[in-house]
């Protein structure tokens, strides 16, 4: 049986919480067929859910492969790619028709996915072979880079020269030109959330087992600092202007905001509307941050007021990832330094390397 990067706590006793969405700066607009929409992988339903981010309503379900986990949207806003962890495939979705246009095979437990800025290369973490898949999006042909550990998340820098892959106590840096691991950065604990600033200068990982967020210099590929965040920091979202990192505390029912300039926590908001929050993301106008709790609750944070408002969104069974459109006008990067009855408390997430 394939070893999962994380022993998924979604398969516990309760119905899972929906995913979370965010918004971006007023100067940025979303483009292509995905304009005004968000996409959530509902792994337990084998579908991608389409959400209207203006009305916070469900629009459609797109059937994909078995246990869809990561999703990423092409730069033109017209295509999405989904890693089907149990199906060993990548689904290619035409966002204009909300239908799968191609299914790529040859993978082994593809979990999370990322794209280069041109949209010509897709990167996928393959838990079955402990490798990073690199797929030509024109041909669907792939090569695989051995990592030496069970990978979970991946992000790529905007120039398409490096990818960062998370595993137990490590972030591997993959040289995308030579397709080899160029260096490994030791961090504390198991990194669940992973993000890179739009200028490609910093990477952040939320390490839930050790209650820290690691800040990494993505130029020197070295650890800058580890920021204390209590109560199982689980998922992170970097604001569209690169000024803030949002971190959900799974065991703390809270959302922390970290300044990317000082690499310190600058605010904490309680999230009683979404108990055990574990996922987040940002929409292209920067006006909303959606937070998803373990039992299915979805709330929207106004980043300006830090006020959280519940929604009636249905994120499906076991939502794993959330994406909105790319920016037509990328934001200017900030310069950074080097309900009813009380439910039974779920078991904390288990981690496997």
UniProtKB/TrEMBL annotation:
InterPro entries: Haem_d1_sf, Host-pathogen_enzymatic-act, WD40/YVTN_repeat-like_dom_sf, YVTN_b-propeller_repeat. This is Unannotated protein. It comes from freshwater metagenome.
């Amino acid at each position: 049986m394939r070893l999962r990067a994380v022993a998924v706590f979604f398969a516990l006793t309760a119905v899972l919480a929906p995913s979370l969405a965010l918004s971006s700066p007023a100067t940025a607009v979303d483009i292509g067929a995905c304009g005004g929409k968000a996409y959530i992988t509902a792994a337990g339903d084998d579908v991608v859910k389409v959400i209207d981010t203006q009305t916070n309503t469900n629009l459609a379900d797109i059937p994909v492969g078995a246990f869809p986990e990561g999703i990423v949207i092409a730069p033109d806003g017209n295509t999405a790619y989904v890693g089907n962890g149990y199906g060993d495939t990548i689904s290619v979705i035409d966002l204009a028709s909300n239908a799968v246009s191609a299914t790529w095979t040859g993978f082994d437990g593809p979990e999370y996915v990322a794209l280069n800025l041109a949209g010509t290369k897709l990167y996928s973490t393959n838990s079955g072979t402990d490798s990073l898949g690199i797929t030509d999006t024109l041909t669907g042909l792939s090569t695989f880079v051995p990592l030496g550990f069970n990978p979970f998340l991946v992000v790529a820098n905007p120039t398409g020269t490096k990818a960062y892959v998370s595993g137990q106590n490590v972030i591997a840096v993959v040289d995308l030109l030579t397709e080899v691991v160029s260096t490994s950065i030791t961090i504390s604990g198991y990194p669940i959330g992973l993000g890179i600033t739009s200028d490609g200068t910093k990477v952040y990982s939320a390490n839930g087992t050790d209650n820290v967020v690691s800040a990494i210099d993505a130029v020197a590929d070295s650890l800058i600092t580890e920021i204390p965040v209590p109560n199982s920091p689980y998922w992170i979202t970097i604001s569209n202007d690169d000024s803030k990192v949002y971190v959900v505390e799974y065991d703390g029912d809270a959302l922390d905001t970290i300044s990317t300039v000082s690499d310190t926590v600058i605010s904490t908001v309680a999230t009683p509307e979404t108990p055990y929050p574990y996922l987040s993301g940002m929409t292209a106008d920067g006006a909303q941050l959606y937070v998803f709790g373990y039992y299915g609750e979805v709330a929207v944070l106004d980043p300006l007021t830090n006020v959280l408002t519940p929604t009636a969104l249905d994120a499906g069974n076991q939502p794993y990832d959330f994406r909105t459109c790319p920016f037509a006008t990328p934001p200017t990067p900030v310069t950074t330094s080097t309900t009813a009855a009380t439910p039974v408390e779920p078991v904390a997430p288990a981690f496997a390397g």
